[in-house]
Amino acid sequence: MISDQNLQKTPLYEKHVSLKARMVPFGGWDMPVQYEGILAEYQQTRTLASLFDTCHMGEFFVEGDCVKSGLDHLVSMTIADMPLKTCRYGFLLNEQGGVIDDLIVFRQAFEKWFIVVNASTISKDAQQFKKHLTSASSFKDLSPSTGKLDLQGPLARNILSSLVEDIKKLDYYTFDFFDLFGQNVLISRTGYTGELGYEIYYPAEKIGQVWDALLKFKEVKPAGLGARDVLRLEVGYSLYGHELSDDITPLEAGLERFIDFNKDFIGKTALLKQKQEGLKRKSVGLISESRRSPRAEQKLYDASGKEIGVMTSGTFSPSLQKGIGLGMVEPSLAEKGKTIYFGNDTNKEPAVVSGKLFYKKGSLKN
Amino acid sequence: MDIENDLLYTKEHEWVSLEDNIATVGISDYAQEALGDITFIELPSVDDEIDQFGQLASVESVKAASDIFSPISGKIIEVNADLESEPGLINKSPYDKGWIAKIEISDPEEASNLMTAEEYQNFLEAEG
């Protein structure tokens, strides 16, 4: 158990405490897991709008030519053809093809790149960037000075447009700079919930006023990491440290669409080899046949009781009223519709292999 | 947090009400709050014989699974089947609609191993 003294606090820590949030350690940070309750915060996000403190996440800035800077070689996805003010999701890989982190690259200008990374991986990501970026680039870790809020839910656009009128022009996975309380700040139409939503990057020391202003809307309530995890799992998004890790490749995670094999990048040789040899395990969705939920690290079994894999994430799905999850299994068993079992040596519960989009009615692209 | 006065409590945060030789069992307001939204319960079967502090039921919340222990030994004579379709009743009404099982008490003396409401209150405060 990490003692509280070692945990980092976001600039909104005191606000969470005064809202009586339950605080938990997450990726080295003391974060709100819930305020009112996970299910209430889940419903709020699916039907109205929720505000998430995501100040813990990391932000880098790279300046330089896409290829000459070394950036293109660092990330798995195509970035050379990115239009200005668009975002793209992909991976930072090690030489073995394992995932150092999943990240989003924002193209601010032809040679200016803003990169958003996970909280727990900031230092190893920065190390990898510094190691592989060339002298034709500059690198800055903006994480300590950058605050971040996620406003997510079907009403997010209407709400944010009363503070930032032009926000309506943002399409999914694009961003721009907007005036918000006298600061010119980056706002992107991205998120981690499967709902229409925005991520607001704001100077850390001043982000409290944005938090307060958004919570003044009666349609907005704060939501914690508990609801965030249920929301992301219902739309099959990966969580670093669970579905993705230094030992899991994007091919195993079923995320090949974020890899551009037509360019050179770190890890490419290993991934090509893995493709050629065939996968030994593959990520699948699972729907429990009951209200019992699978949990991360539980084992998976076939009908004969043979161990065939492991759960990477699991939760109760409020929209399906059943347990759901993501797991890694032998590819021969990764067939949709197949019944497999989650649990332990003494207690096994049936679940059906499925796609990863468990909730299909999200407002994401509205 | 709500602690009902005329109930007895366990260190695992179950409550029991004793009437003649019948015990009604549930979990305390503290326990439901700590577990968070309960999404599943595995109830015991009627006629099961159960030991004091032995496993009575298991519950799952959105994020975790936990066991519930029996405050008293005896035979299960009724379970709250409403919880199977609506386990959230335990959160909404831990001392009333969220009761879990009724037990025919085999040894009334065991009640001396349980805490009164006042003792439970002190126990919670000591636990911090």
Describe it for me?
The complex is a heterodimer of chains A (366) and B (128). With 366 residues, chain A is an alpha+beta fold. Chain A has 2 domains: 1-277, Gyrase A, domain 2; 280-366, Aminomethyltransferase beta-barrel domains (Elongation Factor Tu (Ef-tu), domain 3), CATH 2.40.30. Chain A has helices at 13-18, 38-47, 71-74, 122-132, 156-161, 207-215, 225-234, 268-277; strands spanning 22-26, 29-34, 49-53, 58-63, 87-93, 99-109, 112-117, 138-141, 146-152, 175-180, 183-188, 197-203, 220-222, 282-288, 299-301, 307-317, 322-329, 339-343, 348-354. In chain A, strands 10-11-12-9-3-13 form a 6-stranded mixed beta sheet, sandwiched between helices. In chain A, strands 14-17-16-15-18-19 form a 6-stranded antiparallel beta barrel. In chain A, helix 2 crosses helix 7 (225-234). The termini of chain A are far apart. The model of chain A has no long low-confidence stretch (mean pLDDT 97). Chain B is α+β, with helices and mostly antiparallel strands and 128 residues long. Chain B has one domain (8-108): OB fold (Dihydrolipoamide Acetyltransferase, E2P) (Beta Barrel). In chain B, the strands form 2 sheets. In chain B, strands 1-2-3-9-8-5 form a 6-stranded antiparallel beta sheet. A 3-stranded antiparallel beta sheet of chain B has the order 4-6-7. In chain B, a hairpin with a 3-residue loop joins strand 6 (55-61) and strand 7. Chain B starts with 7 loop residues before the first strand and ends with a helix. The model of chain B has no long low-confidence stretch (mean pLDDT 96). The chains are: A alpha+beta (366), B alpha+beta (128). The A-B interface holds A 34, 37-39, 226, 229-230, 290-293, 295, 315-316, 323 and B 36-37, 39-40, 42, 60-65, 87-88, 91.
